[in-house]
Inverse folding.
């Protein structure tokens, strides 16, 4: 047995099986399918729950400001006032301001989770991830109107920019 | 700041006048320091005489932030400590809060928590393997591990909508139930993963260069490891069979079967092997959980506003991918924690680095930084 | 082609033609049409092949299949800011990259891409000196000065350590490399590069077969000489940031880069010439393969060189990096004794056969 | 979280995105069903219990005498209040005689209304029966706490962190310097009276450019000054 062991030891020293095994693996990988995603042309579809850009539905919103209170970093700014609705004669809350400072947002989703309306009136599940921008104050600080109309990602590919 | 940087008079470039030793500042901008670790090295040729870690470049005052927010709002902050293992951070934090408030987690939520935590352990270990290998000069495992990690992160994305900073657990249970088809995708990945692990091992485990670089490097005897408070795969690599999942089971880890691997010599190679086996064991745990996943609620009954009792204090530690991650929370009757201290595994494990790299070479140092598996977000908090 | 050469020759006269015009043209063609494009596309090939080995695509955006990538790289490096550290030793800092590139390219002068001139044609090499191999070894070893100078003059501790590592490594590995080269020289009985290939033709076999040990030694030592993975210690990016060229940027960095790749090609070309029969077709002794004879020698030469270059890239995609002391161990304790043994055996066999 | 009753509002269909399953509304003022599983009952928060009858308490009191000022337990963790000057001795006894070889954690806490205002909390672990206990020591700004670095080497960095964050010094510590912040930082950030917005961070980043107290963010802080200048570690 000792002889066999020493033979194997010598063979191991001379033939370098471990190194050749590694070489074989990398060689095999040359012909396997590649996993690269050619980004601007190919895009991966985010999952349904993906937390991306915010959307707001002002009609559904009851102006309870829970989302602003639940935000761990206080980036949701809400102002509202009461106004008599001329049609119904009831007092309604009217949003003056609903701003989100996306520069600091960490997309934790607690605002959506805290929202008491059903369905939620603020949600992040918009399948959007292309939020990079050249102008932080213009594009990464969104107000009420932008939140409601916001639906397209910024133009990225040449055709889109053109 | 317009004046040019004034150069000091010739200081002999940090060479000590009467010896061969040289001072070398290793990091914080260095490719192998996994972030912003800085080591003040005193070297003789390439041999390290003395090393002194300088940390704090990523200090964000997380513990102060914890005191400002109600319990549930702190969960996103825990994500950002060990940002490659957010689920286990969440689990440790919500575990501590649950202990503090006396919440009981429903079985389905516990089971899903185990799955998430083990997926996170695999993903953290995969990232560790990638960076460890690239530190030692093997470039290819990096891409292979990232290929699989990507699928893993997709699973997280399907579950909670985020890939890294998950925010996926709540005191008392979970925010969401599993989406349709998730278990199938998870099971498919788990069936696939052992083969992929074999691939990585084929590149590294028996490779003589890899062995030369890791066997016998940075030996940490068990007594010293315990003395330094080192936990996780580092402690197990030193041959101490201690795993919080077995020792103080939480979230139903006592209901699953798995083994705790240990190393024999306490060197870098043993820690590598321990982590590789741990990934396989995690696969085993996940498979069991997927099989027996109970039906039922995912959230316990809990008060509308969670308030800790006055003068209540708790310490809860779980087995994170890097070691014991624990939270010490003091309550004062308000919805906010009065004091919330984190026991970060990387911080404590990093403490043993000067001991490990005494007399090592610069090339060993990068292997040793890799083997301690630090995340600077957690070290500096 | 032949008529063009003939007309030029008759116009300028034999002496001038063979003494100046033909070498000059050959040098220009070799440098600008072969070596520099080859280096440029070698970088692309490396990135693409590495990418393929690593389950990704590699650069494929500039031009079709990324074929214009090297040009984009060169343009980028040319217009990049070229900074010299405040306390660097300027003359050495500037000189170092030139010292790396110059010798590497100089070696090509004696490497035969193909056979001697037939009547009325040109030979496939710039010059054939009877101590060609000596010239190769001597010139290639100048390159180490560039690395040391670059590392030292940068006034950066990481650079300094990179320079020191490269000095120790290249000097150590020159010994087994030189010893491995002596084997084919013994068999051929000449130091002329052309002569060695012709001897292989005369002996009717490539010297890789009798000299398999020497071949492997040369291969390993060659990888170490060019500072490539798994022996890329002087620039080990995870240890020494970028080693000796940490402080270099722009075109000076590009020159170091150029030097490294030129050295790879040199090592491959020398190995091809000495062990794989240079421009000879495979198995020159097998008559059944005679149909391969019409293929020009330079094609065979290029194919063999590419195999070596692929090996370099393949190694880089697979292996971890050696540690410095282990590298020295391997060189001094294993390779030099084995090379000496191989040499003694070769000499003995040669003596007995003769 | 916020489980306020949601007013019924006619709402259009949401976009194709899965929403979290709404939690079951829990009705109040109903008699609890005793057979309900634990997680559907109201949570019972743990309370402090007396820990005097624990065998460890008795044994420890015998060995270190009056060093143990109180022994209570909360949620299964026995907590000893240890006299400040006896902490290193107590720890040594716990390690040597009772097998608490693993120092899990060491941290500080600030109670500004209390006298003395700081706590240092030690979490200990015993491998033989996986037992965890907690020690706490009270101290004030002026009095250093004996270091336990000699008992566990693990205590080194956490003690530095406590000094860094709370300004509690440890006597006999081999390297009592700041760890996460830089030397020369004014104030101790985890103290309750340290403003969250931050303070003038002072100099010592670029001493050749900035005077002491004239750091890069001078003027942006709240003007808070520590009650007295931090004592430089000896």
């Amino acid at each position: 047995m000792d002889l066999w062991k020493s033979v194997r030891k010598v063979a191991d020293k001379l033939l370098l099986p471990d190194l050749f095994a590694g070489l074989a693996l990398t060689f095999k990988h040359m012909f396997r399918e590649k996993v690269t995603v050619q980004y601007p042309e190919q895009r991966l579809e985010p999952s349904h729950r993906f937390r991306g850009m915010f959307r707001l539905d002002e009609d559904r919103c009851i102006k309870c400001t829970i989302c602003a209170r639940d935000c761990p970093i206080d980036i949701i700014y809400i102002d509202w006032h009461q106004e008599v609705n001329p049609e119904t004669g009831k007092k309604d809350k009217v949003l003056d301001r609903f701003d989100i400072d996306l520069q600091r947002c960490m997309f934790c989703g607690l605002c959506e989770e805290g929202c008491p309306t059903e369905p939620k009136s603020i949600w992040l599940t918009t399948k959007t991830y292309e939020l990079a921008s050249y102008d932080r104050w213009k594009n990464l600080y969104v107000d009420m109107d932008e939140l409601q109309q916001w639906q397209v990602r910024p133009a990225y590919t040449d055709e889109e920019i053109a | 700041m317009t004046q040019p940087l004034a150069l000091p008079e010739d200081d002999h470039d940090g060479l000590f006048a009467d010896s061969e030793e040289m001072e070398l500042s290793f990091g914080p901008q260095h490719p192998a320091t996994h972030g912003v670790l800085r080591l003040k090295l005193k070297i003789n040729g390439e041999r390290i005489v003395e090393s002194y870690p300088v940390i704090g470049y990523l200090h964000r005052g997380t513990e102060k932030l914890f005191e400002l927010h109600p319990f549930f709002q702190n969960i996103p902050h825990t994500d950002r400590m060990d940002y490659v293992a957010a689920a286990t951070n969440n689990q440790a934090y919500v575990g501590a809060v649950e202990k503090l408030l006396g919440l009981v987690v429903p079985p389905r939520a516990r089971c899903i928590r185990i799955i998430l935590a083990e997926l996170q352990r695999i993903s953290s270990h995969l990232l560790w393997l990638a960076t460890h290998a690239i530190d030692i000069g093997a470039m290819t495992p990096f891409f292979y591990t990232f290929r699989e990690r990507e699928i893993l992160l997709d699973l997280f994305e399907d579950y909670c909508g985020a890939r890294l900073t998950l925010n996926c657990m709540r005191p008392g249970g979970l925010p969401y139930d599993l989406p349709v088809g998730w278990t199938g995708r998870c099971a498919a990945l788990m069936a696939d993963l052992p083969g992929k692990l074999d691939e990585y091992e084929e590149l590294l485990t028996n490779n003589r260069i890899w062995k030369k670089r890791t066997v016998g490097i940075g030996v940490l005897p068990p007594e010293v490891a315990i003395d330094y408070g080192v936990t996780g795969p580092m402690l197990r690599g030193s041959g101490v069979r201690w795993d919080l999942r077995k020792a103080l089971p939480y979230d139903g880890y006592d209901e699953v079967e798995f083994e705790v691997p240990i190393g024999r010599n306490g060197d870098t190679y043993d820690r590598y092997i321990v982590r590789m086996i741990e990934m396989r064991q995690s696969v085993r745990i996940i498979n069991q959980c997927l099989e027996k996943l109970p039906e039922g609620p995912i959230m316990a009954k809990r008060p509308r506003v969670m308030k800790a009792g006055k003068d209540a204090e708790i310490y809860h530690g779980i087995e994170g991918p890097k070691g014991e991650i624990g939270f010490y929370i003091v309550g004062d009757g308000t919805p906010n924690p009065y004091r919330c201290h984190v026991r970060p595994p990387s911080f404590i494990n990093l403490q043993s680095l000067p001991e490990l790299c005494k007399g090592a070479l610069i090339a060993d140092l990068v292997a040793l930084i890799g083997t301690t598996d630090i995340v600077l977000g957690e070290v500096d908090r | 082609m032949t008529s063009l050469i003939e007309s030029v020759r008759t116009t300028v006269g034999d002496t001038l033609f063979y003494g100046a015009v033909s070498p000059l043209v050959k040098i220009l063609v070799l440098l600008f049409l072969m070596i520099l494009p080859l280096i440029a596309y070698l970088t692309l090939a490396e990135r693409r092949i590495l990418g393929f080995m690593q389950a990704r695509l590699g650069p494929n955006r500039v031009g079709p299949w990324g074929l214009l990538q090297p040009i984009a790289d060169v343009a980028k490096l040319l217009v990049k800011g070229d900074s010299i550290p405040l306390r660097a030793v300027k003359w050495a800092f500037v000189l170092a990259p030139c010292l790396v590139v110059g010798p590497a390219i100089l070696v090509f002068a004696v490497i035969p891409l193909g056979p001697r001139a037939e009547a009325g044609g040109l030979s496939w090499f710039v010059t054939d000196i009877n101590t060609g191999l000596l010239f190769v070894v001597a010139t290639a070893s100048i390159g180490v000065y560039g690395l040391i100078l670059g590392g030292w003059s940068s006034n950066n501790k990481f650079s300094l350590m990179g320079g020191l590592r490269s000095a120790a490594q290249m000097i150590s590995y020159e010994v087994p490399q030189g010893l491995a080269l002596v084997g084919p020289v013994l068999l051929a009985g000449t130091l002329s590069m052309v002569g060695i290939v012709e001897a292989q033709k005369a002996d009717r076999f490539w010297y890789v077969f009798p000299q398999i040990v020497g071949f492997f030694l040369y291969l390993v030592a060659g990888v170490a000489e060019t500072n490539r993975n798994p022996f890329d210690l002087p620039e080990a990016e995870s240890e020494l940031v970028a080693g000796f060229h940490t402080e270099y940027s722009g075109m000076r960095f590009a020159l170091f880069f150029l030097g490294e790749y030129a050295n790879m090609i040199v090592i491959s070309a020398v190995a091809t010439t000495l062990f794989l029969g240079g421009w000879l077709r495979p198995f020159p002794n097998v008559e059944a393969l005679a149909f391969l004879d019409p293929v020009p020698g330079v094609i065979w030469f290029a194919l063999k060189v590419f195999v070596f270059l692929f090996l370099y890239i393949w190694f880089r995609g697979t292996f971890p990096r050696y540690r410095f002391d282990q590298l020295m161990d391997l060189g001094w304790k294993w390779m030099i004794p084995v090379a000496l043994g191989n040499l003694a055996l070769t000499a003995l066999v040669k003596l007995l056969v003769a | 979280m916020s489980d306020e009753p949601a007013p019924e509002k006619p709402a259009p269909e949401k976009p194709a995105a899965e929403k979290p399953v709404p939690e079951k509304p829990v009705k109040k003022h109903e008699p609890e069903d005793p057979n309900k599983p634990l997680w559907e009952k109201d949570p019972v928060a743990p309370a402090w219990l007396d820990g005097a009858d624990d065998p460890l308490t008795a044994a420890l009191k015998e060995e270190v005498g009056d060093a143990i000022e109180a022994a209570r337990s909360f949620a299964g963790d026995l907590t000893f209040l240890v006299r400040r000057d006896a902490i290193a001795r107590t720890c040594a006894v716990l390690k040597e005689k009772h097998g608490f070889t693993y120092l899990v954690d060491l941290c500080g806490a600030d109670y500004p209304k209390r006298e003395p205002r700081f706590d240092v909390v030690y979490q200990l672990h015993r491998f033989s029966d996986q037992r965890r206990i907690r020690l706490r020591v009270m101290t004030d700004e002026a009095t250093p706490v004996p270091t336990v670095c000699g008992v566990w080497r693990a205590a080194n960095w956490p003690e530095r962190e406590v000094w860094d964050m709370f300004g509690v010094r440890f006597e006999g510590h081999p390297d009592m310097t700041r760890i996460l912040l830089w030397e020369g930082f004014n104030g101790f950030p985890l103290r309750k009276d340290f403003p969250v917005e931050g303070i003038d961070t002072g100099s010592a980043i670029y001493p050749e450019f900035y005077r002491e107290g004239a750091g890069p963010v001078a003027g942006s802080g709240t003007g808070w000054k520590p009650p007295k200048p931090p004592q430089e570690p000896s």
